[in-house]
Amino acid sequence: MENVKLNTLPVPTFSSLGVNFAEREIEISGPEHISVGANEQKQIIRYIDRESDAFTALDLNIESGADVKLVQVFERTAPLVSKLDIALGDNAKLDLVQIYIGGSDTVSEIGAKLNGRKAVFNADIAMKLDGKDKIDLNLVSEQFGKKTVSDIKLGAVLSGEARKIFKGTIDFKNGAVGAKGSEHEDALLLSEDVVSKTVPVILCAEEDVEGNHGATVGRLDERHVFYLRSRGLDEEKIYELMARSKLLQAIDKTGDEQTNSRIYKALGWGERDE
Amino acid sequence: MKEKTQVTDIDRSLYDFRYEEDESDFLEGGITPSIIEEISKEKNDPEWMREFRLNSLEIYNKTPMVNWGASIDGLDVDNIVTYIRPKTRMNKDWDSVPDNIKETFERLGIPQAERESLAGVGAQYDSELVYHNVREEVAKSGVVYTDLESAMHDPKYAELIRSHFMKLVPPTDHKFAALHGAVWSGGSFVYVPEGVKLDIPLQSYFRLNAKGAGQFEHTLIILEKNSYLHFIEGCSAPKYYEAGLHAGCVELYVAEGASLRYSTIENWSKNMYNLNTKRAIVEEGGKIEWVSGSFGSHVSYLYPMSILNGRGASAEFTGITFAGEGQDLDTGAKIVHNAPDTSSYMNTKSISKSGGKSTFRSAVVVNKNAVGSKSSVNCESLMLDRISRSDTVPVIDVKTDKCDVGHEAKIGRISDEAIFYLTSRGLSEEEARAMIVRGFADNVSKELPLEYAVEMNNLIGLEMHGSVG
Questions:
Q1: Which of A157, A191, A207 is the best substitution to test chain B (most B C-beta atoms within 10 A)?
Q2: By CA distance, what is B395's nearest residue in A?
Q3: What was the pLDDT predicted at B434?
């Protein structure tokens, strides 16, 4: 076991906010390597649950023209450190779907290197935290190649005394001419005891790029609640529906019925078609 | 004399002139207990202030340098002259100010601005205020606008200053706050009594003339209930090859129902390290508005902070940063929602050009007790070439569910279509680019007093000169 510094923010900020890095005592093991050859199509699904190790690492190399979907479902209730390193070649594409259901103390690090021209990285992440769940998620998308695109979306629902840190960085490197990057977080807070920290970073060393990020954090807009109440829904049902909608935008991207059924069950939503 | 409002093609010589200093007036460089004792003696500090300075020095020595933000490796604090003896006492009569100092401020347009549009003006030259004046009718309303040292020795205000000085920004806040506590000199004290609303602004202008020196002025403003004030701050220095340091401190106390607008145009020369700390605390129903333009300095760390401490208090921050060649400007704002139904709005623009680096850094903290609070942050960055850099590092820290926090940011370039359209209408490419940048900065210039808006537009014109190719 060693004390390891994880989830380092690429550009550190005010120390008092406690978002610059995370430190955990962990036993590090080598990553699982997956390489997807040129022009291949592949879907990879991983469940990280109570059977999994406390440290998991995946190194994913996607060669030119390959099209990959990676689905990771996190259901582990004990402390976890997860690392995911991605490299994308010319015209390579990765659709990453991550679903976090609970997590007593999860540190998750995603590093994507868009090395090739026109490489595409889409990340759809959903997070449902309750009780004393705690997650520190750090996603860094480094765009080296020309006309690369990254699109990062997080939907989070926090209740109980849950604590969440989401650090999302789009890093336009010099030379990434014509690159585009977008990042959005939508966090619904359902208890006065939750803590939600959001750090949407854009780093830019290239003129000809377009980047944007947005975040909305809090309860529902009172006007929306009023409208739905006027349609006969009670407030509890309204919040339940809204919580579902925040999570479904990622869950619907898994593209796998069996995985979705498992996620629905873990979330207590019953069967998929209910 | 140049008239600022009519300069069409401003050049840096407006700021870059300087007068030779008599170095026998300089205290030895560096920060030691004996230097601090000497400053304290020169300034005839009361005993509590002498102890405060020495205590701050101890904190300074124990506090590590910040480990984030722009590099300050080129700053050797041990070689900075922290205090320069003044050539003159503080004057209320402009004619009594020594000629070279008078000429400095006349070239910067300060006395003229006072005559035309200000309720009062203060001018600091190196370490001390050299001129302070306030209109008679303003003084009659009970408004106090004077240098901090005089106020500290006035029995009417001594206790008020003691109970407020560096209470919002304690020396333990960070290393340069501790340095400020140890060596501060000059700055203004403003007191606006309950219910008094000043229709025209007060202005302080800070000029650092000496090379290799630091300026550590302290601005303390206290607004009583339901009062209003617009305070303007301007800064400049001539260019030297040695690094200069500005580590000022601004503390603003806004009582219930009071409203304060604090405008700054910072145009330090590009050898300056601008490590300034500004903070406001706002009570129930009060409002703080920051308008900030950062154009100068080699390195800046500037994040005005608003603590919304009473129900319904609000803060607005409007800022622009223009980082050109050799500049690393790390700017932004911090807002702490610490009471129910508070609201904040942050709107910033940053422009990077010719290898300059601008970083927007912000923090919006919504504490557990800030139920019903709302916050909106909007930042836009414009890259004018591919050798520059623009980073955006916002943090949103929310500790209650009953709030509504939004954040939006965009980064991009000037579109070729816009340039094409404007050139087809007869503008040169350089004029077209300057016009687009001025438009980009429009929301900030609209918030500035007219003469400052003109100056800002001229500065943009100057910075954009030669931007094509």
A1: A207
A2: A199
A3: 85
Give A87 or B468, the one with higher predicted confidence: A87
Whether residue B262 is predicted with pLDDT greater than 90 in this model: the reply is yes
Whether residue B136 contacts residue B221, with contact meaning beta carbons closer than 8 Å, is answered with: no
Interchain CB contact of A220 with B (< 8 Å): no
Helix, strand and coil percent figures for chain A, each rounded to 5? 15, 50, 35
Distance CA B117, CA B7 (A): 18
Q: What is the pLDDT of residues B403-434, one digit of tens each?
A: 999 999 898 888 888 999 999 999 988 888 88
Q: Which positions in chain B touch A143 (Cβ < 8 Å)?
A: none
A219·B402 Cβ contact <8 A:
yes
ipTM score here? 0.93
User: Residues 6 or more apart from A144 whose CB is under 8 A from it?
Assistant: A113, A114, A115, A173, A175, A176
Which residue is listed with tokens 């569910």?
B401
Task: Please report, for chain B, the start and end positions of each structural domain, with discontinuous segments joined by +.
Answer: 4-302, 415-469
What pLDDT was estimated at residue B458?
A: 74
Say what the pTM is: 0.90
- A11 vs B334, B381, B393: nearest CB: B393
Is A14–B68 a contact, with Cβ atoms under 8 angstroms apart?
Answer: yes
Q: What is the mean pLDDT of residues B240-269?
A: 88
The answer to whether the Cβ–Cβ distance between B395 and A196 falls below 8 Å is: no
